[in-house]
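Protein data:
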Amino acid sequence: MKVLIFRETGEPKSVLKLAEIPTPPLAPGEALVRVLLSPINPSDLHMVRGRYGYQPELPASPGAELRYWAMKRTCTKSWNP
């Protein structure tokens, strides 16, 4: 699967790379989704630059918002918020 990833902090145009990684196996209760779009917000850019209050373990992928299409799931219960 393709991911936008950074292995070090810095200016986004220098450190963000499109990479191909293996699709991880699904654990119970997880779903595989196809991301249709995922915006990168100002807070994501601060994280990539290393200037955000929370810094993820590297390598990391920016962005927490997404629009998706469910492809496969392992859970048997439906989710109703």
About this structure: The chain has a mean pLDDT of 85.
